[in-house]
Amino acid sequence: MSEVFFNGPAGRIEGKYIQSDNPRAPVALILHPHLPSDFFEGNMNHEVINCLYSILIKNGFSALKINFRGIGKSQGTFDNGVGELMDAATALDWLQLHNPSSLEYLAVGFSFGAWICMQLIMRRPEINNFIAISPPTNKFDFSFLSPCPIPGLIIQGEQDSIVPEESVLELVNRLSRQKNINIEYKLLSGADHFFRGKLNDLSNTVDEYIKISHHSTGKKNASKKHQNKLLL
C-alpha cells in the first residue's frame, strides 16, 4: 500500500493506493463516511473502509481510497457534498490515468461516501458497477437516481439507528422497478450503522457480490495469487 497525493479542486488530495500486477485488472474507488454523527470517524482509515479496501485487493482490484477535502492531509474544507463529489471525480481521473488498459470501474461508498458514490455514477459512464453501504437516504436527497444507469449492491444494517431500514428500502424498491438494471439488496442481521462486530459479515457479502458481478476477473484471481506493487 502506498500513500499518494494528487491535485484536486481544493488543493492536494491524500489517498492510499495499491495497483494490481494485471494491467487489465478491475479498478475500485472507495469513499469514506462524513456525516455529523460519524464525523470524527469519517476518513479513509475507518474500519469499514479498511475492510472494503482489503476485500477488493484480495479480489485482484487496483484500489484507491481517498480522504475528502479537509480530512487528514487533504487540503480544503468540508463542502456539504458539492466539493466532495469533485474530489471523487478527480480521484477517478487519477485512476484512469494509472490504469489505461482497465475496462472495469467499481465505485464504492459508505454512509456519506455512498451518497457521493451514487452521484458519481450518474456523471461518469465509465463506472460499470457500484456498492453503496448504509446510504443515508433519510439525510440526503437521492432523487437524482432516475434512472440508475448501472447495476449495483446496496447493503444495510438491520439495527442501524442512524439510517432506518425503511428509508433505504424505499430507495431499493424504486430502483428495482427499472428494467434491465439489477439492484441487489442485502440486509445484514444484527448490524448497526458501523457494522460493529459484523465486519466479517460485511466482508463476505461484498466478496460474494464481487465474485458474481466481476465473475471473469474473480475466477482468474481465485486460481492465481496476485502480487501487488506499490505506486511510489
UniProtKB/TrEMBL annotation:
GO MF annotation list: hydrolase activity
- Pfam families in alphabetical order: DLH
UniProt-listed InterPro entries: AB_hydrolase_fold, Dienelactn_hydro
Origin, by domain of life? Bacteria
- List each copy of the Dienelactone hydrolase domain by range: 88-207
Q: Could you list the residue ranges that cross the membrane?
A: none
- What is the protein name stated in its UniProt record? Prolyl oligopeptidase family protein
Q: Which organism is it from?
A: Orientia chuto str. Dubai
